[in-house]
Amino acid sequence: MTGYNCIMVYSRDRQRILMCKRTRDPYKGLYNLVGGHIEDGESGETAAYRELFEETGITHADINLKHLMDFTYYNQDCYVEVWCGRILHEVTLSEEAHPLEWLDFSYDFFDMNKFAGEGNIGHMLEQIKQFGDGFLD
């Protein structure tokens, strides 16, 4: 089963979330969370910090990530680990392939014309909003 991760990066004041605007398929032109593949033999945590650094320049010293939830897609033979954390101090972003933007929470993150993931981004944000994560609260 192929592993992937999605990383929910909150701004230091928790008023914004970091998104990338996809420049290629899947989800070309839509906002998505940063993330990527979990390599063979790599732990989920190691992969989350590696992908976060590769895509944004954010290091382990800039954020503490917490494993929030997983999705398993048996029909696609893959799983997705969802990680979240809040920036500890101001950072300078360094995009890899997709432009990065801080979005405030006024958006409808369930809008599949703007956001990737068939509503999953909205679902994940609502989970934290309603139930917390024991970390960002």
What is this entry, summarized?
The protein is 18% helix and 32% strand. By secondary structure, it is α+β, with helices and mostly antiparallel strands. It has one domain (2-131): Nucleoside Triphosphate Pyrophosphohydrolase (Alpha-Beta Complex), CATH 3.90.79.
Describe this entry's structure for a reader.
The protein starts with a strand and ends in a 6-residue tail after the last helix. The chain has 2 helices and 7 strands. Strand 5 (66-73) and strand 6 (78-86) form a beta hairpin. Strands 4-1-6-5 form a 4-stranded mixed β-sheet, with helices on one face. By secondary structure, it is an alpha+beta fold. 18% of the residues lie in helices and 32% in strands. The chain is globular and about 40 Å long. It has helices spanning 44-56, 120-131, and strands at residues 2-10, 16-21, 31-32, 34-38, 66-73, 78-86, 100-104. The chain has one domain (2-131): Nucleoside Triphosphate Pyrophosphohydrolase, CATH 3.90.79.10.
In CATH terms, the superfamily is Nucleoside Triphosphate Pyrophosphohydrolase
Q: Give the low-confidence spans.
A: none
The CA-CA distance between the termini, in Å, is 33 Å
| CATH fold naming | Nucleoside Triphosphate Pyrophosphohydrolase
- How many domain regions? 1
Radius of gyration, in Å, reads: 14 Å
Total of helices: 2
Major sheet strand order: 4-1-6-5
CATH architecture: Alpha-Beta Complex
Shape: globular
Mean pLDDT: 95
